[in-house]
Amino acid sequence: xxxxxxxxxxxxxxxxxxxxxxxxxxxxxxxxxxxxxxxxxxxxxxxxxxxxxxxxxxxxxxxxxxxxxxxxxxxxxxxxxxxxxxxxxxxxxxxxxxxxxxxxxxxxxxxxxxxxxxxxxxxxxxxxxxxxxxxxxxxxxxxxxxxxxxxxxxxxxxxxxxxxxxxxxxxxxxxxxxxxxxxxxxxxxxxxxxxxxxxxxxxxxxxxxxxxxxxxxxxxxxxxxxxxxxxxxxxxxxxxxxxxxxxxxxxxxxxxxxxxxxxxxxxxxxxxxxxxxxxxxxxxxxxxxxxxxxxxxxxxxxxxxxxxxxxxxxxxxxxxxxxxxxxxxxxxxxxxxxxxxxxxxxxxxxxxxxxxxxxxxxxxxxxxxxxxxxxxxxxxxxxxxxxxxxxxxxxxxxxxxxxxxxxxxxxxxxxxxxxxxxxxxxxxxxxxxxxxxxxxxxxxxxxxxxxxxxxxxxxxx
Length: 461
Ligand SMILES: *[C@@H]1O[C@H](CO)[C@@H](O)[C@H](O)[C@H]1NC(C)=O
Ligand SMILES: *[C@@H]1O[C@H](CO)[C@@H](O)[C@H](O)[C@H]1NC(C)=O
Ligand SMILES: *[C@@H]1O[C@H](CO)[C@@H](O)[C@H](O)[C@H]1NC(C)=O
Fold this sequence. Notes:
Oligomer: single chain
Number of strands: 5
InterPro entries: ARM-like (IPR011989), ARM-type_fold (IPR016024), Hsp70_NEF-Inhibitors (IPR050693), Nucleotide_exch_fac_Fes1 (IPR013918)
Pfam family, one: Fes1
Distance between the termini: 67 Å
Protein name: Nucleotide exchange factor SIL1
Subcellular location: Endoplasmic reticulum lumen
Bound molecules: 2-acetamido-2-deoxy-beta-D-glucopyranose
Function: Required for protein translocation and folding in the endoplasmic reticulum (ER). Functions as a nucleotide exchange factor for the ER lumenal chaperone HSPA5.
Order of helices and strands: HHEEEEEHHHHHHHHHHHHHHHHHHHH
């Protein structure tokens, strides 16, 4: 349970630092109210004198205005947190404030504590904390007019030092990502660990490997091999979590993608897809396959050589696996479109040698002929029967992407023609509803355009 412990410690450090940042941001913009410092943290070991001072002060002296995303009027006596937008209403002469859009920070007050939280992300990154500290320091450099103000600023000084210490402590804790990964890998690799402990270790690793550096750490620590090996596990929770870690580690991380391919991950993933497994396992495996193939023509060629399209065709037609169909089609569609976009970009980059190499690599990925061979010209139309708009949209886009190869088969498919005219009617009506609600370029309009495009292109010679 060491990782949990570390996380708790980290969270504690973080919340202390956050609390201080919040406090200081408020102070920094409230020159006349050093009483903001009356807010204290119970667990801190302030000296006796300071504690008395802190307790004696009335925290209600400072009225902090918490901006929302709407402009609101605030009174001259009120303090406004840093990062807020403040303006003067020329008609009323009143000052108005709203929350800074970029920050997405929410300010809170609870008794005599106050602080802020980031509403975009559940936690602050060390970078955001440093930014906050920097902003506050910049605020400190403002010219100070009176002695009272100077005292106010001086009164704020010690806590800044404390804040810095917290930042350092936080930095030290931040540097333990590698240590945390080592511990998790040990927990996972330890024969004494229960399956549950191993799964927990994998899920915590999954959280860490989203970061590019940590993905690479996973490789250098020998974790990639452990994870690939775990795909072979007999326990479905281990299989599933291993696929999840793998997928997250390779996402947008080319060097890790290469390592995973070289480590034989694709073969193992395809085996999992080709053999009877619970749908929840296959979902994670499909995620890992998609992440592994993305922007990686070598892996895509490999996928074709290993019979990946056939594996997906069989899975697509497996009774009970209907919920996987959209995911499967997405993997294929993304590959088709990726290659198409690369060759379009080629027009302006014909002299760039790296681009030439990329084109060469994608030229080796010959997906469309394999899709035709494996029956996808008639499999994709089946998805149009889905009641879900998203699924129909994906199907229509894929049908259009395969038009050149599949046109003859499309034309000979009476079910497809029937589906298209049915969808055309449905979406024409839905578009009217959308327009009644004032939406001109709505989602249904987008789908209708795809249906229309299909109908027109199928009528071409
Ligand atoms: C597993 O547990 C046994 C007995 O508690 C202990 O002797 C051994 O060192 C442990 N192995 C590992 C790898 O921690
Ligand atoms: C996993 O454990 C084995 C022995 O139990 C060890 O040889 C191997 O280095 C460990 N791998 C990692 C990545 O910790
Ligand atoms: C993993 O699974 C494959 C196919 O199921 C099998 O051939 C291989 O021996 C297994 N490897 C290990 C290390 O269990």
